[in-house]
Specification:
Elements (H helix, E strand, L loop, with lengths): L4 H25 L4 H11 L1 H10 L3 H23 L6 H30 L3
């Protein structure tokens, strides 16, 4: 089976997000210098998310891609709020990361399933 560019990006998102979560763990428990890499890599995730969101033709994929995009926007917003005096953005940032990972796994799975039943 040959995958489209959108499908490859959908399949790569869970891997990239898992890497992002791992970087946060490394920064938290091993080396605080990794925070910068976590932030930069986090902003780079915008590229595949934006491409998937704007290029998905199937309605079901487009809706799931937008869900990933909204969760990503919430994640970036929460990341900006972490510098505030409150601890709630940190807790929600972590929970949202897990939701973002789950949504990306569903999107990746559906991108494969969707290609079996529809013509592009």
């Amino acid at each position: 089976m040959q995958y489209t560019r959108s499908q490859w990006l959908c399949l790569s998102l869970p891997v990239l997000i898992t890497g992002q979560i791992s970087l946060a763990g490394l920064a938290l428990f091993l080396d605080a210098e990794v925070w910068t890499l976590h932030i930069v890599f986090g902003f780079l995730l915008l590229l595949p998310i934006a491409f998937i969101t704007t290029s998905s033709r199937a309605r079901g994929l487009r809706e799931k891609a937008w869900l990933v995009a909204v969760l990503y926007a919430v994640q970036v917003t929460l990341g900006a709020l972490i510098e505030s005096a409150s601890y709630w953005p940190i807790a929600i940032h972590f929970i949202n990361a897990l939701l973002l990972l789950l949504a990306s796994i569903i999107l990746a799975s559906d991108s494969i399933t969707e290609s079996k039943y529809s013509m592009h």
